[in-house]
Amino acid sequence: MEVQIFGLKKSAATRAAERFFKERRVKIHFVDLAQRPIAKGELARFTQKFGLTALLDVEGKAYEALNLPYLRLSEDSLVQKAIDHPELLKLPLVRMGKFLSYGDAQGDWRTWMDTAK
């Protein structure tokens, strides 16, 4: 069993996800989005399942700082902004095989663990 976590080291939710899986001895492949931006195709997996608006942290400081509430951007432009500024996303983005989640989704993660047994 292996899980891939996309997040930022400074994000408390990302650290909580890492801790959750480490406590359950699940192998983690962590991608620090501050060091390496998420691939457009990888982000597309999450946007296809949840929609871009669900993934964006519209209440966050980064969203306001980039003046996004006042701009009318195409979805492609918003995706590029999210790639360039990962703090716009509700982190962490977690993938375990075909399962995907965003944010603090411990209930989903527990279900994945039960399914994988």
From TrEMBL:
PANTHER family per UniProt: ARSENATE REDUCTASE (PTHR30041), PROTEIN YFFB (PTHR30041:SF8)
Gene3D superfamilies: Glutaredoxin (3.40.30.10)
One matching Pfam family: ArsC
Superkingdom of the source species: Bacteria
Record-stated family: Belongs to the ArsC family.
InterPro entries: Arsenate_reductase-like, Thioredoxin-like_sf
Protein name: Arsenate reductase-like glutaredoxin family protein
